[in-house]
Write a structure and sequence with these properties.
The protein is mainly β and about 150 residues long. It contains 2 helices and 8 strands; from the N terminus they run αββββββββα. Helix content is about 10%, strand content about 40%.
Amino acid sequence: MNIIELEAGLPNGFHDATLEKLEIDYQKSVVYILMKLWIGLLPSKPFLGSTPVMRRANLSFERLVYCVVEPPEQLGDSDHEELDVSGCENVPENPNVRLPTVAEGVFRYAFYVSDWNSFIHIAARTVGVTWLESEESAWSRAKEQD
């Protein structure tokens, strides 16, 4: 599966996701990203807004070509345990980061890290997702936190 197919199957794509962990395994040529993905909203309470429902997942970018983490342009809250991210297929050119061209069959994708005002760029041949909790568990957790 490629990243666009995976993103299309998510209710909100990678918009309003959070990144908890990024791990690169050079021997296996894989990048693992532990994320919380937005899957819905709890009904809103008057004047309080809606509570997002986030489901934990591990993405595995296999047959990795590259993973480039741009340096932060700004640093957010240092006590933050996760990063707010949104995915984007077409990233504007950054004169400070030169990404190599890729072969046929390789997809390029980036996650914009709003806390840093910079991107994490990934090029790979396939991507998979492993859900770390059921939808029901994610909804239950959100209701408990509401």
